[in-house]
Amino acid sequence: MKFNKILITFLLLLITSKNYSQKEKTNSETRQFIDNAEITQINKDWNIKAEFKSGIGEILSFFPVEAIDLKSKNKIKSLQMDMTVGNGYFKSSWIDLDEVNEFILFIEEYVVPNLKDKTEKKQSTTYIFNSREITFSFYIEKSTRRISIYLKDNGNTDNEHYFWTESQVNKIPELLTMLKEIK
Predict the structure, then answer these.
(1) 166: nearest Cα among 133, 130, 135, 142
(2) C-alpha–C-alpha distance, residues 116 and 125, integer Å
(3) Model-level pTM?
(4) What is the pLDDT of residues 138-171, one digit of tens each?
(5) Max Cα-Cα span within the chain
(6) How far apart are the first and last CA of the chain?
(7) pLDDT for 105-140, tens place per residue?
(8) Contact between residue 29 and residue 95 where contact means Cβ atoms under 8 Å apart
(9) Cα(144)–Cα(131) distance, rounded to whole angstroms?
């Protein structure tokens, strides 16, 4: 009986620690770095930026940042994304540099070659890139093309606050150029 209690306690601790470690990995290393530092400095480079604006005034900006833990002097570089949508909702998310490489590959291989593609009637094609903190979607239906960006918190996608545009799809090559500059 005592052995069973010890075994059950051990299994519960193991499950709890595994669930906690999985949640930690769902956010970017940059967010974890910022959250774990007591005092942080974030340097933003506004000279290298890609920006998208929707027809209703929503804004999505990508730019490189360097976060510094001022106590330990440790630093981390990444891509920050600021999004302002519906009724002034604002959020920042980060794409770690290792994910930036994948993002570049995604845009080069699946988005840019298909910027002028069309689909047949009653057909569509969607290309999706998932990082730890964002989902970037490129959608084609007939001659309409749209990008949508959804943010994630702890791995959960926020379907209420997202950015989308059809009129700014032609700016994707500018985003690609900016991403290559920060690598």
Answers:
(1) 142
(2) 13
(3) 0.81
(4) 999 999 999 999 998 888 888 999 999 999 999 9
(5) 69
(6) 59
(7) 999 999 999 999 888 999 999 999 999 999 999 999
(8) no
(9) 25
